[in-house]
Amino acid sequence: MYSTINEVIIHNRSSIEEEWKSQMMQFKEDERELASVTNEVYKNSNTEFIDNLLNHVIDGQDEISSDLQDFFERTVQIGWPLSYVTKGLQLFRRIGLKTIVNKKENIDGIMDTFEVFDRSIDTLYEKIVTYSTQNWKDTISVQKKALLELSAPLIPVFESISVMPLIGTIDTERARLIMENLLDGVIKNRSQVVLIDITGVPVVDTMVAHHIIQAAEAVRLIGSKCILVGIRPEIAQTIVNLGIDLSEFPTRSTLLKGIEAALELTNKKIEALS
Fold first, then answer.
1. Number of folded domains in the chain?
2. pTM of structure
3. Does 10 share its domain with 141?
């Protein structure tokens, strides 16, 4: 069956390639994400794409070739839309099947030929979708990790005094990162006092308070002290209503008052210049 497909594709390679490239150029005009790609670059990419597709079918491979796999990966990595690849595969399937019907004289074998050719394109679809999905997951994972790291920074503000401003919801994963950044930062900056500022935390429930208490206890165990600042009236009321015990470490209503307390704990003070 592959010999039949090979014969049709090989004998009609030029016409298949010409029709495919023509329709892909029309696709570029309709696809806004490809507007910044020059025609020369696009044409070169199309030439590589169709050559690899034709070779894949002619060779009768069940697995995707290394050249085609490399082309798919490069296309995704440089930021071209996945629709470029899927559109190319759709057009190749349509043009290839049309060519087989027009050129194959034995009508009885057309459906079998259809199935073999169609299956070879399906293999390519599965590969590119699988790779693109994994690439997307990896990208999201990296971005999420970067955002998490930025969401819990430990900032030295004075010698031996650091501040960790927290903004947004605190879940278990973020609490783990807060703990890691807090301990690493305390040691790196040789902080004697750390101010955990929860002004930007919208809700402080039992779980959030538990994570904060754990972080403060961990800091205490390595020889430093935590001050919890940014306790708004509604947060204070919630803490009282939930029966959360924050008596183990100092609290202040604002960051300014927290810094004043930290300076006092480290035997420092700020004096105005006369």
1. 2
2. 0.51
3. yes
Q: Does residue 103 lie in a domain region?
A: yes
Q: What is the pLDDT of residues 56-114, one digit of tens each?
A: 877 776 677 788 888 888 887 788 888 888 899 889 888 888 887 776 555 556 666 66
Per-residue DSSP letter, 215: H
For residue 66 the two structure tokens come to 């290394």
Q: How far apart are CA 273 and CA 77, in angstroms?
A: 57
Max Cα-Cα span within the chain: 103
Tell whether 142 and 71 lie within a shared domain.
Answer: yes
Residues 241 and 165 in one domain: yes
Any bridge partners for residue 251, and if so which?
Answer: 228
Contact 213, 196 (CB under 8 A): no
pLDDT at 2 over 60: no
Q: Provide the token pair at 138.
A: 């990896």
Under a CB-based contact definition with an 8 Å cutoff, are residues 182 and 162 in contact? Answer: no
Helices (H), 151-268: 172-189, 206-221, 233-242, 255-265
Q: In this predicted model, what pLDDT tens digit does every residue of 7-43 receive, in sequence order?
A: 777 888 899 999 999 999 999 888 888 888 899 999 9
State how far the Cα of 246 lies from the Cα of 240, in Å rounded to an integer.
Answer: 10
Rounded alpha-carbon distances, angstroms, from residue 26 to 17, 29, 39, 70, 89: 14, 5, 11, 25, 15
Question: Does residue 7 lie in a domain region?
Answer: yes
**Could you count the other beta carbons within 10 Å of the beta carbon of residue 179?**
16
What is the spatial distance between Cα 52 and Cα 72, in angstroms, rounded to a whole number? 10
